[in-house]
Description:
Layout: H1 2-24, E1 26-27, H2 28-31, E2 32-34, E3 40-49, H3 61-73, E4 89-97, E5 106-113, E6 124-131, E7 137-144, E8 150-153, E9 158-161, E10 166-175, E11 188-193, H4 198-212, E12 217-219, E13 224-228, H5 237-246, E14 248-249, E15 256-260, E16 265-268, E17 273-274, E18 277-281, E19 284-295, E20 306-317, E21 321-325, H6 331-340, H7 345-358, E22 361-362, E23 364-367
Parallel strand pairs: 15-23
Antiparallel strand pairs: 1-14, 2-11, 3-4, 3-6, 4-5, 5-10, 6-7, 7-10, 8-9, 11-13, 12-13, 15-16, 17-22, 18-21, 19-20
Amino acid sequence: MLRRLIATLPALLILQMLLPLSISAARIKDIAQLEGVRSNQLVGYGLVIGLNGTGDSNGTQFTIQSLVNMMERLGVTVNRDEVKVDNVAAVIVTAKLPPFAKTGTTIDVLVSSIGDASSLAGGSLLMTPLKAPDGNTYAVAQGPLIVGSLAFGGKAAKVQKNHPTVGRLPGGAFVEREIPFALNPDNQLSYQLAEPDFTTVSRIATVINNHFQSPLASPVDSASLNVSIPQAYRDRLVEFVATLERLPVQPDSTAKIVVNEKTGTIVMGEGVRIATVAVSHGNLNLVISESAQVSQPGPFSMGETFATPETDITASEDAGNLVVLQMGVSIGDVAQALNAIGATPRDLIAIFQAIKASGALHAELVVL
């Protein structure tokens, strides 16, 4: 038993060394994607019917015209001047066609009113072709809407929850046309990084080449790299892509500080560093108060009563604390030092902007 434990000890040590790396690393599929494997936008114009008086008004001419044209295509002749569209709403239907979508599969669609309808709750979408930018129809949507909101009230008051003029059709569109795509042109795959970075793309190429023990991957630039398909995987391309996507890579990124002045939100990356700099923080408080002094004349003096305004201005400044941030401090040291001087999030935004202007901040400052 002791010999078996001693024999397995090296394997346990190696596993312990690799475990933190695998936890902190990301898969290639999470930071890069195959070139050409992407979703495509679809859009269409349609009508929602069955509304309980919450549809478009008679002033919405394109709704009336669409309804009349539809009825005529169905063989019904109607008088345009006598058509009411209270129960009908004109909508724009949008959807995303995922990569490798096959004919007959379903996709979700989003339906949004473009007229003056007050609610789409309870309505059903009529058959609506969904087209791509090339003008071809790739899907057809139809079915009852799921709005998930309500709106009711009278002339003096109204209660509304969520947004009643937008609805969804989960699985409400059928794919009618497939997008042709060749996965392995010239026996080579091209990957594109979501966040271009020379260090990250170099690490991806190194990980792939070490895993297959062959120089298959070669970086093109900071955003893409080419991977040659080995001869053994020419007939097992899906297996090869799946193996590539599971490989762990430690991504790199530029040090950034993102601040939102509207909400006072600050997000700092791990690589943020600050050179030696002194920061002083003090609050100037200015209080202005006004009061009125009433002058009342004596009885039977025939005088006038009038008010005399008095203004009191008080200015006070808190004692500023001078904190020295040493060169190369980490994000934890920065947060601890700035919290020590009592800086609020909005004060931190001004402090970071001043440090950036002084040239002591070794990171990109992004202000939203």
